[in-house]
Amino acid sequence: MTQPTDNRRVALALAAADVPALPLRAGKVPFGNCTACRGNVCGGRTNMKNAGPCECPRPCHAWAAATTDPAVLTSTAWASAWREAAAVAYHPGGAGLTVVDLDDAAAVAWARENLPATRTVPTTRGEHWIYRGTMQSPNAVRPGIDIKSLMSYARWLGPGTGTMTDLPAAVRALAAKKPPKVQPAQLVVTAPVRAGGGKCRHRTPTYLERGIAMAEQRITAATSAIHTTTYRTFLAVLSAHGRCGCLTDAHVQRLFAAAQAKGESPRHCTDAWTNAQSALGL
User: How far, in Å, CA of 73 to CA of 59, rounded?
Assistant: First the structure.
């Protein structure tokens, strides 16, 4: 059985090699947000290597909890996480890497025929192919294939074998070949109608349409910190339109579609929307 000190020792070795590390629960699940940031109320404000300006005292924000600071990894605040940790993960983007996660034998066979050789690490059912360079991290770019780089984490399964090569255009093309599949928003907008009744100014088609269009444009124009931009945009939309019942599922779908086109998952979209509602007391 893996001991807590073993996982922490692995994380410290990764940190010494400038690879940001973090603890994982059983099932490859990151630890939940710390008490101060429960529900991601701070919006996941982070830089690309370490926990961000919120200065959380313990692991939070999933991939962004990864750090190269040994003082953080060995701190009292992280002790309980290491006691419960089942494995160690790392933030590929923070280390300047991209992991092509091949989930089964068919995906591995496809990669061997279509991608340049690089360092490989065996996984439970497939392989991780590791390239030097970073990119966004879309999932399901092909059957059984995810890409883990910026704003993502991968389980540490050892250094692997083979010579690591530069991130090829063929991998970037996987993400560009088709936009991420936009799934319907699985939520119902329940913002209350404005107290006192009367016609809501937000129901003016031009006013509401302009607000949603500007929100879509803000998300689409983002070139970094996509998760933070998505959350803050949702927060702004709900602040302006969330208390009078004028938002519909169609409006939410448009915002989710814009975010997913930038690489956000449906779950992240739902979480960001729910957290924005909570932050505003809706």
Answer: 9
Tokens of 190: 């329940």
Structure tokens at 209: 């349409």
Residue for token digits 């496809």? 110
- Alpha carbon 34 to chain centroid, angstroms: 17
Write down the residue that tokens 């066979």 correspond to: 109
DSSP bridge pairs for 154:
90
List, in sequence order, every residue forming a beta bridge with 100; answer none if it has no partner: 129, 147
Strands (E), the chain: 21-25, 29-30, 87-90, 97-102, 119-122, 127-132, 145-148, 154-155, 165-166
11: three-class secondary structure by DSSP: helix
CB 159 within 8 A of CB 130: no
Per residue of the chain (282 residues), what is the pLDDT tens digit?
A: 455 579 999 999 999 999 999 998 887 777 765 656 655 555 544 433 333 445 566 666 678 788 899 998 998 888 888 998 999 999 999 999 999 999 999 999 999 999 999 999 999 999 999 999 999 888 888 889 999 998 889 999 999 999 999 999 999 998 875 544 545 444 444 443 343 344 556 556 677 778 888 888 888 887 777 788 888 888 888 887 777 767 778 888 888 888 888 877 887 788 888 888 877 776
Please state the length of the chain. 282
273 phi-psi bin (left φ>0, alpha ψ -120 to 50, beta other) = alpha
Q: Which alpha helices (H) appear in 37-148, and where do they start and end?
A: 70-73, 79-84, 105-114
DSSP 8-state secondary structure symbol assigned to residue 9: H
Residue 252 has which token pair? 């939410």
DSSP label of 44 = -
Question: What CA–CA distances, in Å, run from 176 to 12, 108, 139, 218, 254?
Answer: 35, 20, 12, 20, 20
